[in-house]
UniProtKB/TrEMBL annotation:
This protein's pathway: Metabolic intermediate metabolism; (S)-3-hydroxy-3-methylglutaryl-CoA degradation; acetoacetate from (S)-3-hydroxy-3-methylglutaryl-CoA: step 1/1
Catalyzed chemical reaction(s): (3S)-3-hydroxy-3-methylglutaryl-CoA = acetoacetate + acetyl-CoA
Enzyme class: lyase
Keyword Metal-binding among UniProt keywords: yes
UniProtKB keywords: Lyase, Metal-binding
Domain Pyruvate carboxyltransferase: 19-286
InterPro entries: Aldolase_TIM, HMG_CoA_lyase_AS, HMGL, PYR_CT
Protein name: hydroxymethylglutaryl-CoA lyase
PANTHER family: HYDROXYMETHYLGLUTARYL-COA LYASE (PTHR42738:SF7)
E.C. number(s) listed in UniProt: 4.1.3.4
Transcription regulation among keywords: no
Family: Belongs to the HMG-CoA lyase family.
Cross-referenced Pfam families: HMGL-like (PF00682)
Organism: Acidovorax lacteus
């Protein structure tokens, strides 16, 4: 908690020297694709991300294939990965059924995913917030007994597509419940990318009442073009874990109109420019983004990639 400031001080006083990025492209980035993306392409994307230096990759989710058909190949994708030492592979598991299917695929971390908004919880996982916690509790207990790390994703921490603004107290309430059931770290997610820096800081302030700075991460969609500003505002508080998506892939099937996550390339460029180490090779990351964008048949959403590719082209 030592770095945390309610009133952020100038950058040089509070910025972490190192940032850990989790690329969620293979999961969050691809879950909303209408055309099936072959498992081999997903595996190749994971390989390119780890070759670029990503040490945390959110690979897939063990959810109902009726709800999210694109993730139906979860076990095949996990089995296809040539694991690299030092890389953590995570998967989403909304209930015991998903957890039991995930365990044989040897995830390093499972993610239970709840929402600060009741309406979003219902739309996304078909239950209330309280019911979701009841479902997660045995998943968390089983994961920890099996030595698997547990992360909790908290959606709609500043805004909800169905309820509008979300008060920080509701974020704090959810974070407290996640803590109570044994979740080890949580993501503060702006699912629909509506947040602005001070709102995002308030969501973190509410979360930091339950988790310390080493156990919170930022997950910002870029729908309104605020994701990099929000990243900077969280950095100013000392947050040093962030999620992002190569090529800015993504969108949530239950948040219509929401665009992808902030592009990993753009975050790496921002951090590099500020002298903050990520261990990621930006050129190799851009190549990974080009690969998946070509597979999907559309241009990268990363502005940094577009700019640097134009320079490469001469
Ligand atoms: C949670 C459920 C399953 C509840 O769905 P439900 O219908 O309430 O579940 P149920 O227990 O009544 O089961 C219904 C059917 O689903 C099956 N089922 C049940 N569980 C599983 C499972 N784990 N894996 C595979 N199948 C499953 C179950 O066997 C049964 O099959 P049937 O008898 O009809 O053939 C459903 O709502 C669901 O799958 N939702 C997934 C939603 C999702 O993946 N959303 C996107 C990820 S969240 C996100 O993107 C936000 C995040 C994390 O990125 C952060 C942010 O930006 O906010």
């Amino acid at each position: 908690m030592s770095l945390y400031r309610c009133d952020p001080e100038p950058f040089s006083m509070t910025l972490p020297s190192r940032v850990q990025l989790i690329d969620v492209g293979p999961r969050d980035g691809l879950q909303n694709e209408k055309t099936p993306v072959p498992a081999a392409v997903k595996v190749a994307l994971v390989h390119r991300l780890q070759a670029a230096g990503l040490t945390e990759i959110e690979v897939t989710s063990f959810v109902s294939p009726k709800w999210v058909p694109q993730m139906a190949d979860n076990a095949e994708v996990m089995a296809g990965i040539a694991r690299q030492p030092g890389v953590r592979y995570s998967v989403l598991t909304p209930n015991l059924k998903g957890f039991e299917a995930a365990v044989p695929t040897r995830p390093d971390e499972i993610v239970v995913f709840g929402a600060a908004s009741e309406a979003f919880s219902q739309k996304n996982i078909n239950c209330s917030i309280a019911e979701s916690i009841e479902r997660f509790a045995p998943v968390v207990e089983a994961a920890r007994a099996a030595g698997i790390e547990v992360r909790g994703a908290m959606s709609c921490t500043v805004g909800c597509p169905y309820e509008g603004d979300i008060a920080p107290e509701r974020v704090g309430y959810l974070a407290g419940l996640m803590k109570q059931i044994g979740v080890q770290r949580v993501d503060v997610a702006d699912t629909i990318g509506v947040g602005t820096p001070r709102q995002v800081q308030r969501a973190f302030e509410a979360t930091l009442a339950h988790f310390d700075l080493d156990h919170v991460s930022g997950h910002f969609h870029d729908t309104y073009g605020q994701a990099l500003s929000n990243t900077l505002s969280a950095l100013q508080m000392g947050v040093w874990n962030f999620q992002s998506s190569v090529a800015g892939l993504g969108g949530c099937p239950y948040a219509k109109g929401a665009t992808g996550n902030v592009a990993t390339e753009d975050v790496v460029y921002l951090l590099r420019g500020m002298g903050i180490d990520t261990g990621i090779d930006l050129d190799a990351l851009i190549d990974a983004g080009v690969f998946i964008s070509e597979q999907l048949g559309r241009p990268t959403q990363s502005r940094v990639a577009r700019a640097l590719l134009a320079r490469r082209a001469g």
